[in-house]
Here is the input.
Amino acid sequence: MIAKKFILFIVVSLLMAGCVEKEIIDDVNIEMGLGYDLKEDDKIEGTVMIPVFNPDKRIGNFTFSATATSARDLLQEIQRKSAQPVVTGSLEIALFGEEMAKKGVIELIDSFERDASIGARVYLAVGEGNAKDILSGTYGNRGNAIHLSDLIKQNTDKRNLPKTNLHLFLFDHYQKGKDPYMPILKKLEAEIIDIVGVALFKGDKMVHTIPADKMFFFKLLTDKFSQGSFKIKVREEEEQAAIRDLDSKNKFKLTKRDPYSITVEIKIEGIIREYTGQMLTPAMIKKIEKELENTVNEECSTLIADFQGHGVDPIGFGHFIKSKTRGFDFKKWEDDYKNLTVHVKTDAKITEVGIVE
Amino acid sequence: MSQQPVPERLQISPFLVLYLIMSMQIGIGVLGYQRIIAEAAGYDAWISVLGAGLSIHIIIWMIYKICGTVDGDIVAANAYVFGKKIGNLVSSFFIIYLLIFALAVLRTFIEVIQVWMFPELSIFWFSLVFLILAVYIVFGGFRTVTGIAFFCIVLPSYLLLTFSFALKYADFRNLLPIFDHSAKDLITSAYKMSLTYIGFEIPLFFYPFIKDAPKSQKWAHLGVFLTTIIYTILAIVTFTYFSEDQLAKSIWATLEMWKIVSMPFVERFEYIGIANWNLIILPNICIALWGSSMILKRAFKLRQKKGVIILALFCLIAINFFDTRAKINFLNDWTGKIGFGVTYLYIPFLFIATMIVKKVKNK
Here is the structure.
C-alpha cells in the first residue's frame, strides 16, 4: 500500500512539473525601465532598458527602441526585436517624454495596470525633453533603472518630492475631484539626473508644472505626513537659515459653503541645519519660525491660486469637500473650484538648532 | 426517518465547528467581492457586509433548531417534513448545490493562477491532482476533513497581516460621507455578498457528526462572526486603498493589494499569497465532496467511497466546459444565486415547515 502511494506521488509530481512553461533568468530579457516618446505623425517610440549582468559584477545597460502607432503594437515590435522573450516582472520606472505626457498617458499606463506581473510600486515620471535620452545614459553602478528609482525614492523619503508611484497615480486619476502628478526628470550631464519639478495632469494630460523650489510647499499640501528641507531668508536681518522639516502634518477644514471656503492647517516641526549669522538667540529662532510660517502661508496660497487658474486640483479639494457633502455634484464643482477660497494657516516649531548655538 | 447515531470515535469536538464554517466560507469570493458590492452601494458597502454577516446568525439559529428537532442532518429533516420519497428527492438537490459550489471554487482558483501566475496552466491536470488530493482526504473520514479545515484556517491566517501594507496608502476620506446611499442600495449590496458568505449552512450536513451537537451552536455563531469581521475590515481596507472608479476596474481587488507589498526577501508577494491560497481552497472542495457523497449514501444507500469518486469524476469532466471569463462569471453568479436561495429562502422555509410538522406530530 505504501509503495503504491509512493509511486502515485512520484507520478503526480512528474506530471505537475510539466504543467507550466519555465522561465530561466539567463534566458529572458528583464525589462526594468521603459520610455515613451511622441514622434511625428503621432507615432510612439518606445524604449526598453534591460540590465546586462557582466562577469565582473558591474551592471551594464542595454536599450533598444521601436516605433509604432499604438501602445499595443509597440509591445509586439519590441518583442520582435528581442532575441529573448522580454519579461515585465521587475519594471522599476516608466518615463514619458514631455510631448507624450501632454498628449495623454492613460492608454500606455493601461498595459501596466492590466499586467498582473507589474507591481504597484513602479515609478512614473516625465522626462524633460526626451525619455529615450534619459534611459540611454549611464548612471551609478547598479544599473540605470535602480539608480533612477533610488533617486526618486530618496527624494520622496527625505526630501521635497511628494509620494508618487503607479498606484498613487492611478488612485488620483480615478478619484473624482483630484488630479494626478508625476516628478519631472532631467538629464543635467552625461551621468547626472536631476528632479526638476512636478508635472500636473488634468485627466491623463500634462497641463502644468511646478518648479523644484516650490516642491517643498506642494508636498506640505499633498502628503498628510511629510518631510523635506527648505532655506529661508529672514527679511530684516539679512541672515539665512536652512531648515530641515522632520515632521509635518496637514489638516483640511471646511469653514464655509456657497462659495466654499477651506482652511488648511499645516504643522511643521523642524531643526536648523545651517545658519549664516553669528548667534542663534531664542529671539532669533522665534523670528525664523515666524518667517517660516509667513513664507509657507504665502507660497502655498500662491500655488493653490495657480492651480485654480489652470483648473487642476492635485491637492484633492474636490474629493475633500465631497467627503463632507451628501450627494455632491461634481459637474457644479468644476465652476465652484474657481471660486474656492483657501486659507493656509501654518504653525512652525524649531525644536533643535544643532550642536552649537 | 430517524438516523442511526454516529459512533463517538467518528465524531468531532463541538469547537471544531468554528473552523469548519470559517474554512467553508472563506474561499474564492473574498478575492474580489469588493468590486461587486461597491457597484450598488459605493463605498458605503462595508455596512452591507456587516449587516449581511449579522443576518446570518438568524439562519444559523434556524439550522440548529431544525437539526435539533429532527435530531439529524438535512436528509433527516427533509424526510421529516416531506416524507421519505419526496424528502430524498429534495435532498438530492443539495448534491447538485454542493457540486456546483466545489466546481465554482476550483475553476475560479484555476483562473486566478492562470491570470496571475501561469497563463498556460492546464485546467484538466491541475483539477485532476487537486481532486485526487481531495478524494484522498475524504477517504480519511469526517475527522480528517475537519483536521484539514482546521489547518487550512490556522496556517494561512498570517495572510491577514499582509494587508497592512495597503493601510500605508489608506485614505479614509474615501469612506465619507457615511450613508450616502439609500437603504435599497445597501440591501442590494448585501445580497451581492451571497457568494462570499455562503458556506455557513454546512452544519446541516454534518450535524450528527458533532459530539454534543447543541453545544456547538455558539462556536458556529463565533465562526460566522469572525468571518464577518474579517470581511468587513478587508472591505474597509480595500475602499481606502482604491479610489472608487479604480476599484470598479479591479476584478481581484484583494490580490491587487498584494502588489504594493514590499519585503526585502521577496519582490512580489502575489506569488506566495496565491500559492498559499491553495490551502484555503482545499477544505472548500473536501467539505463539499464529503457533504454531497454523504447525502448520496444516506438517501440512495450508495457507499460513500464510491460516491466520492463518482462526484469527483463529474467535477473533473464538467470543469473543462468553463473555459472563458464570461462562463466562469456566469458560474459564480449562479453559485451565489443558488446559495442565496438555499440559505435565505429554503432554510427559513424548512424551519417553518419543521416547526409545523412537529406541532402536528405532537398532537
Residues 325-362 of chain B form the longest helix (38 residues). The CA atoms of residues 250 and 256 of chain B lie 8 Å apart. Chain B has a mean pLDDT of 91. Chain B touches chain A at residues 115-118, 120-122, 125-126, 129, 132, 169, 171, 173-174, 176-177, 180, 241-246, 249, 256, 259-260, 262, 267-268, 270 (CB under 8 Å).
